[in-house]
Specification:
Strands 1, 2, 6, 7, 8, 9 and 20 form a seven-stranded mixed sheet that branches. The protein has a six-stranded antiparallel sheet with strand order 14-15-16-17-13-18, with no helix packed on it. By secondary structure, the protein is α+β, with helices and mostly antiparallel strands. Among the domains are: about 140 residues, Beta Barrel (Elongation Factor Tu (Ef-tu), domain 3), CATH 2.40.30; about 90 residues, Arc Repressor Mutant, subunit A (Orthogonal Bundle), CATH 1.10.10.1800; about 55 residues, GidA associated domain, C-terminal subdomain (DNA polymerase, domain 1, Orthogonal Bundle), CATH 1.10.150. The protein starts with 5 loop residues before the first strand and ends with a helix. The longest helix has 23 residues. Helix content is about 35%, strand content about 20%. It contains 21 helices and 22 strands.
């Protein structure tokens, strides 16, 4: 036998596969990562960026647990921006533009230096079974690799098919072959297999763009970073730009509709609702005279630019003609065309909260195979699948995050409970506990949990403990510092703020929306001295905690009340059809889904509040 037995085989080395393999190996499992191409590990096949609205919170959560996406992003960034600064802190979302090639290289260096993790270039075409449990994989080269658990992270490669106009061919990405065989094998084991669609825009030669006619979009003046570890923040940044389509652009694009694989029905899978192709946008929003586009550099030294918002599968001549109608792109040349890709996915109601499949023991799904879209959504699933695969083979309890603990918990609960019929993308609006699940406090929420399972190391815990100590000291100082009306009323008047009639604590003034902690430090020398010695994230966290204390407490109370019902277990083999007090739709859904708690049952579409009351009456002992 060429290959020895492994604890875990991870199939696919995209964002999900890399996080899965890294997590499982760092937790002590013997791991083999199998990828079709070593040179495309964690390739940013769509936009060259990490984070964004809600997605940035996920990357920080991955980092807080001990994953690598935040560290690799910091090492590869060329621009950093905190989005939604004009809104409340629950909406602040970090986003980093990355050097696409550097990102892939940095991830490969990480993986190649983790003890217990091996990498093999090949294609997995079949899984081995021992009864109802997975026992290994079989590769295209004919190798049988024994394993106690298998994590499938196949991305868009399962029976992938690419489309440009009337041309189509098999592939996982342009220039790369699809993964053929696994879908049929899993379908034969009883899995439902459906199709989804995604796409990407042209890559443009930056030397042919007239940047003077575009709106510059710089990074933050004082850029932050993703990781809670000691990675470096950017000292130099590369600008992005904003462009716009126009009515002439739309007219040209419409000339290709009769050749569009999306409009002619040759693509059957549904595409992402919130990241549609440009032809879909101008068809659905015909009243709009323009659509905003983001011109994003793909690297420090690369001339390649990604035209975010211009994804298309129209014929290439139409793509080019439409591109040339956009101001600044009249003479644009391209490196690569836009295209659509249709691929197999497995409706995620077939997996549990650990991401282990319900039908095959030891088989885990993570990433686009579960119907999600986005690097960040894939990476967090990979992390959780890798963690739970390691815990399973080590005979330890599973690791599951609730909706009140993390956006990761929201995402997995949505997938498992509701399923998907279009590519799932995370938004802050999907989380009912947004004030608790902020990007700034991800380490406080999750690092102790990551450390307890052996993923976040001791250094991370020491950093967190130091940060919490600093925050406690500063909070106490702000709470204890008294402000006297005669000393501050003139200053308040200059700031356009109401005067004081009596002595108050500095913390009370901080509740006024017009003031930051930095502002108030100018009237409290002791606080000012303390702030100068503390990291910016500590000061920010203290300010948020004081300003939004009442909201945070209220949300915590709501979460705790709901948790009383959330964890009430439901028997796995219960006959719901025997409960005639339930609606027939509810009996059907509960029998098919077999939720493990009343909380999960309550979020299944078709299960009404009245049905939940019946379940509580029976199972809430």
């Amino acid at each position: 036998m060429i290959f020895e037995a492994y604890d875990i085989v991870v199939v696919g080395a995209g964002h999900a596969g890399a996080e899965a393999a890294a997590a499982a190996a760092r937790m002590g499992s013997k791991v083999l990562l199998v990828t079709q191409m070593l040179d495309t590990i964690c390739q940013m096949s769509c936009n060259p960026a990490m984070g964004g609205v809600a997605k940035g919170q996920i990357v920080r959560e991955i980092d807080a647990l001990g994953g690598w996406s935040g560290i690799v992003t910091d090492r590869s960034s060329i621009q950093f921006r905190m989005l939604n600064r004009s809104k409340g802190p629950a909406m602040w979302s970090p986003r980093a533009q990355c050097d696409r090639m550097l990102f892939s290289l940095n991830w490969r260096q990480v993986l190649e230096n983790i003890p217990g993790l091996s990498i093999w270039q090949d294609e997995v075409v079949d899984i081995q079974m021992s009864g109802k449990a997975v026992s290994g994989v079989i590769t295209r080269m004919g190798h049988t690799i024994p394993a106690k658990a298998v994590v499938l992270t196949s991305g868009t490669f399962l029976n992938g098919r690419l489309f440009i106009g009337e041309e189509s061919w098999s592939g996982g990405r342009v220039g790369e072959p699809p993964a053929v065989g696994l879908s049929d094998r899993l379908r034969g084991l009883g899995f439902d297999v459906l199709r989804l669609k995604t796409g990407t825009p042209v890559r443009i030669d930056g030397r042919s763009i007239d940047f003077d006619r575009l709106q510059v979009q710089p990074g933050d003046e004082h850029p932050a970073k993703f990781s809670f570890s000691d990675t470096m923040a950017l000292t130099e940044q590369k600008p992005c730009y904003i462009a716009n389509t126009n009515l002439r652009t739309h007219e040209v694009l419409r000339t290709g509709f009769s050749h569009s694989p999306m409009f002619t029905g040759r693509i059957q899978g549904r595409g992402p609702r919130y990241c549609p192709s440009i032809e879909d946008k101008i068809d659905r929003f015909a009243d709009k005279d323009h659509h905003q586009l983001f011109v994003e550099p793909e690297g420090w030294r690369s001339q390649s630019y990604y035209l975010n918002g211009f994804s298309s599968s129209l014929p290439l001549d139409v793509q080019l003609a439409a591109l040339h109608t956009i101001e600044g792109f009249e003479h644009a040349r391209i490196f690569k065309p836009g295209y659509a890709i249709e691929y197999d996915y497995f409706p995620p109601t077939q997996i549990g909260y650990t991401l282990e499949t319900k039908m095959v023991e030891g088989l885990f799904f993570a990433g686009q195979i579960n119907g999600t879209t986005g690097y960040e959504e894939a990476a967090c699933q990979g992390l959780m699948a890798g963690v739970n695969a390691a815990l399973k083979v080590q005979g330890r309890s599973p690791f599951v995050l609730s909706r009140s603990q993390a956006y990761i918990g929201v995402l997995i609960d949505d997938l498992v409970t509701k399923g998907v019929d279009e590519p799932y993308r995370m938004f802050t609006s999907r989380a009912e506990y947004r004030i608790l699940l902020r990007q700034d406090n991800a380490d406080q929420r999750l690092t102790p949990l990551g450390h307890a399972i052996g993923l976040a190391d001791d250094d991370r815990m020491r950093r967190l403990e130091k940060k919490l100590s600093q925050e406690a000291c500063l909070t106490q100082m702000v709470e204890d510092t008294q402000v006297i009306p005669s000393e501050v009323n003139m200053w308040l008047a200059e700031k356009g703020s109401a005067p004081l009639s009596q002595r108050v604590r500095l913390a009370s003034l901080l509740l006024r929306p017009e003031f930051s902690l930095q502002d108030l430090a100018s009237i409290a020398p002791s606080v000012s001295d303390a702030i100068r010695t503390l990291p910016e994230d500590v000061v920010q966290e203290v300010e948020i905690s004081i300003k939004y204390q009442r909201y945070i407490e209220k949300e915590n109370d709501v979460a705790n009340r709901i948790l009383k019902f959330e964890d009430i277990a439901l028997p796995a083999d219960f006959d719901y059809f025997s409960l005639t007090a339930l609606s027939y739709e509810s009996r059907e859904k509960l029998s098919r889904m077999h939720p493990i708690t009343i909380g999960q049952a309550s979020r299944i579409s078709g299960v009404s509040p009245a049905d939940v009351s019946v379940l509580l009456l029976i199972f809430a002992k």
